[in-house]
């Protein structure tokens, strides 16, 4: 899902139709009259408008570069955040729910990317090492969802099980205004859920969280923190031998 520039205006179209029914009153004549059946409204619309294929019938490989309006996505995500905010008890609960929603999206993103890889290549490759898988998330997953690659990947110096994906200007945060009393909130928890789902699907279970790390140059800078499970580190050590 890539982004286009927000459309300058949104419009809602509505249609209405009226129909009239003629009432026939019986007369003294014994002659019986019959009216031809009128064509259905759907048949009339089908003749007037060209046939449009069902979205589920479209070839998924041909929609690889399909773009979604940024204004439409911003509006939808804003409604999701506001709806969720009214049903939580605090920032942690809100971030947890956004992470859950992102996880559901991430499972579908991975499924779509794997299907496209298998259908376009006779010998599809599955990453079995963590760093190549992390690089594919940094580049391919980010491009598929946000239309651009993330800005950097970092490894924690203190903890061997922690890695970070840096996004200096997250598209998901561009149209979100966070009040001062909720300054610790990171709506990129939605993105963290996507990353966590992809890692789980690839066989690298981890706990993924989002953190605001603003700088003077990038006030919306966000760090996606990945904390791997011990089983992943043990497997990586065995594969090095």
TrEMBL record:
Region (Disordered): 1-36
Keywords: Endoplasmic reticulum, ER-Golgi transport, Golgi apparatus, Transport
UniProt cross-references to Pfam families, sorted A to Z: TRAPP (PF04051)
InterPro entries linked to this entry: NO_sig/Golgi_transp_ligand-bd, TRAPP-I_su5, TRAPP_component
The keyword Transport belongs to this UniProt entry's keyword annotation: yes
Residues forming coiled coils: none
SUPFAM superfamilies recorded: Ligand-binding domain in the NO signalling and Golgi transport
Biased segments, Polar residues type: 26-36
Principal place of residence: endoplasmic reticulum
Biased composition regions of type Low complexity, renumbered to the chain: 10-25
Compartment(s): Endoplasmic reticulum; Golgi apparatus, cis-Golgi network
Biological process terms in GO annotation: endoplasmic reticulum to Golgi vesicle-mediated transport
GO terms under cellular component: endoplasmic reticulum; TRAPPI protein complex; TRAPPII protein complex; TRAPPIII protein complex
Keyword Endoplasmic reticulum: yes
Family: Belongs to the TRAPP small subunits family. BET3 subfamily.
Oligomeric form and interacting partners: Part of the multisubunit TRAPP (transport protein particle) complex.
Name of the protein in question: Trafficking protein particle complex subunit
Annotated organism of origin: Laccaria bicolor (strain S238N-H82 / ATCC MYA-4686)
Phylogenetic classification of the source organism: Eukaryota, Fungi, Dikarya, Basidiomycota, Agaricomycotina
